[in-house]
Amino acid sequence: xxxxxxxxxxxxxxxxxxxxxxxxxxxxxxxxxxxxxxxxxxxxxxxxxxxxxxxxxxxxxxxxxxxxxxxxxxxxxxxxxxxxxxxxxxxxxxxxxxxxxxxxxxxxxxxxxxxxxxxxxxxxxxxxxxxxxxxxxxxxxxxxxxxxxxxxxxxxxxxxxxxxxxxxxxxxxxxxxxxxxxxxxxxxxxxxxxxxxxxxxxxxxxxxxxxxxxxxxxxxxxxxxxxxxxxxxxxxxxxxxxxxxxxxxxxxxxxxxxxxxxxxxxxxxxxxxxxxxxxxxxxxxxxxxxxxxxxxxxxxxxxxxxxxxxxxxxxxxxxxxxxxxxxxxxxxxxxxxxxxxxxxxxxxxxxxxx
Length: 354
Ligand code: CP3
What we know:
By secondary structure, the protein is α/β, with parallel strands linked by helices. It has a single domain (8-353), classed as Alpha-Beta Barrel (TIM Barrel), CATH 3.20.20. The protein has helices at residues 8-13, 34-43, 46-50, 53-66, 80-87, 106-110, 122-135, 148-157, 165-173, 175-199, 216-233, 256-260, 275-282, 301-315, 335-349, and strands spanning 72-73, 89-92, 96-99, 141-146, 203-208, 237-238, 241-242, 245-249, 266-268, 287-292, 321-325. The protein is globular. The protein starts with 7 loop residues before the first helix and ends in a 5-residue tail after the last helix. The model has no long low-confidence stretch (mean pLDDT 97). Coproporphyrinogen III binds next to β3.
């Protein structure tokens, strides 16, 4: 194991002391960066970009070349897993992801199996190794996957959805069928994340983007139970280092206690949660990641600085906070605003770690 030059992210996720609060941003590589758009054009499409380890490495590093970020996140997508199951992922300009063959009945579900992370998903593990080499120990690399329920939303709906009518009909009318999909997804994500760890991911994050659309009872049964299963089977150590895990349920603010009980090291918060209150609730057991409203980045510099200071102040002094947005950066964000945010986090947080 080679020692990291900047290990503030890993230390914060493990609630160990750091000189300042580390920061990275969901979707830190993406369409708000002109250099990303150039590389994407060169690749021909988002999927071609994600499936080329060399180009995925290039765009992973782009935000780090501009900003003083404390972590890199693998450039890929959560939908690589159902794509590898043969569902036929494609993107419609301006409308987001779609599947050619969504899962609508038992016959379709019977045909899917967990993909081999070193087979159909080899381009991902190869990208992880290549990015680790390129980072050369500067900052840690975060690997990620979608939660079984969030993946199922896309697999069953066949794409983005306004009301999630198809998956919710399955959930209430054919729960056993949805459970079968979730079991396959949980197995797939566990193997996928462990393969990313083996390839060099130094922390892993589970994105449960749609868990927040479930009822209280359904969240526990159809989303969190499977996240818990994954967390319990993740490699906690690799190559002599602890590999922290982060669980993020967007809209999960009322379930923080339950999320913390999965055994994860950190809980991601969206911007609707009061991070100070969350710390009082679960901060003695897990680190917290978040949670600035991404819309703040459309404000003038002084407003961004004030809003960053408010999040830091709300969490308060001491370790265990990883600064992030409450969800991904939107494409209309000015890169200069990200610079302002990153610098403000470092500047304002240092006194909180004295
Ligand atoms: O954070 C990063 O910088 C790493 C890369 C990353 C992407 N997708 C790249 C991407 C990560 C971590 C994801 C996760 C992801 N993908 C999630 C969970 C996180 C979240 O945002 O809630 C979800 C739900 C997806 C599915 C997905 N992929 C959608 C809905 C879309 C279209 C939305 C959009 O912004 O157009 C994608 C495409 C996608 N994934 C893009 C990027 C940079 C945009 C593709 C493009 O260049 O056109």
